[in-house]
Amino acid sequence: MVGRTGLTAVLLANAVVVAVFFAQAGFASNALIVLGRLAGLYAALLMAFQLLLVARLPWFDRRIGMDRLTSWHRWTGFSVLWLLLAHAVFIVFGYAASSSLDPVNQLVDLAETVEGVLRAIVALAIILVVGAVSARYARRRLAYETWHFIHLYTYVAVVLAFTHQVAAGTTFASSPAATAYWYALWGGALAAVFAGRLVLPLWRNLRHRLRVSAVVPENDHVVSVYVTGRDLDRLPARAGQFFLWRFLTRDRWWQANPFSLSAAPDGRTLRLTVKRAGAGSAALRHLKVGTRVFAEGPYGAFTTLHRTRPDAVLIAGGVGVTPIRALLEELHGHAVVIYRVATDRDAVLYDELRDLALARGAELHLVTGPPVPDRLAPPELARLVPDLAERDVYLCGPPPMMNAVLGSLRELGVPGPQIHFERFSLAG
């Protein structure tokens, strides 16, 4: 809550500052040009805010979670796209209204005569392409690596847009204070990305020198990978968090995949447990001991940091049991664990979960059966956990199952602050 409130307050405060500098710069006689300039300024502000959202700074990530930051980034991105389109349309039509040129020739004239406009056109074209491939229809049909490679061109658009603002922005140059503000805004956003996406991961990996220490098949479709390294007791990882793992083999070094820790960090070893879902996850079964690992993280707010009640319910679906199993190791107070799978054979790590529940005095319920009828509907949840509304609820599993359980929790009156979940999604 603190992180969300802080980010919202920062954005609103900057929106006010931008409006003040815009007013101080004076207004053009043409209303379309005024609207175009204002849209461009707020597009620039949101672009800088987007960089902060994907900087993966630990303070924000631990308090908000990468899934929520990514969701905000997505909607901020579409807002930027519409503001940039409004900026271009209003500016072109505004100048065309004051000249004898039609809008197309007016755009060509601006590109040829005003420094920075051509760069702005290229930046807008890049944003349009990125926006198109980020739409849900296209996103589902693209491999993550392809989408991510295209998405990286957003950074080129950011640089081009900033140089356009420096060259042609009347508000940018309206006063020394305005110029200093925009340089500080862009500089701070770019510094956050540089620190969170490059400096911190490189420093941590050079420090810890991670390597694969064991590869253990759990069944025909699931494998656990054990990773060791130096000074792991100083790695700020907690149960429930995940890393972006790169296994530095000849054919997989360029792929980064988000996998949760399936055991609480003990200062000596990290463990991830992965279900085969594609070529990348299937290849983990064939990793050799000693393979170098580059890991970004830890990430995620799905931890005990946000506990609000002394007792808890842990609900897992399928391989979503991995962070749940790790959390059970770390949780204090009475816990009820509900593990939802199609058949007994799908219950990955069930023996570990059973032994751990027994050692910690937790209740464990294995719920099996097809998705329909819903075995975790409100009556069933209320039967399994009569005092559900008095507990923290941790939830991890496939999206359809999570959506259904979240609906059941709301129907049973579980307060929002007591519900903890995280969806794995990446951006930027």
Cα-to-Cα separation, first versus last residue: 24 Å
Quick one: overall form? elongated
What share of residues is helical?
40-55%
- The helix-strand sequence is HHHHHHHHHHEEEEEHEEHEHEHEHE
The chain-level structural class is alpha/beta
Major sheet strand order: 9-8-7-10-11
Percentage of residues in strands? 15-25%
Contiguous low-pLDDT stretches (5 residues minimum) are none
- Domain count: the total is 3
For the sheet with most strands, the description reads: 5 strands, parallel
Gyration radius, in Å: 25 Å
Question: What is the number of strand segments?
Answer: 11
- Mean pLDDT across all residues, rounded? 89
* H/I helix tally: 15
Written overview of the protein:
By secondary structure, the protein is α/β, with parallel strands linked by helices. The chain folds into three domains: 2-204; 209-299, Beta Barrel (Elongation Factor Tu (Ef-tu), domain 3); 304-421, Rossmann fold (3-Layer(aba) Sandwich), CATH 3.40.50.80. It has 15 helices and eleven strands. The protein has helices spanning 2-25, 31-53, 58-64, 66-97, 103-113, 117-134, 136-141, 144-151, 153-168, 176-208, 279-283, 321-330, 350-360, 378-384, 399-411; strands at residues 211-217, 222-228, 242-247, 257-260, 269-275, 293-299, 312-317, 335-341, 363-368, 392-396, 419-421. The strands form three sheets. It has a five-stranded parallel sheet with strand order 9-8-7-10-11, sandwiched between helices. Strand 10, helix 15 and strand 11 form a beta-alpha-beta unit. Helix 3 (58-64) packs across helix 4 and helix 4 crosses helix 5 (103-113).
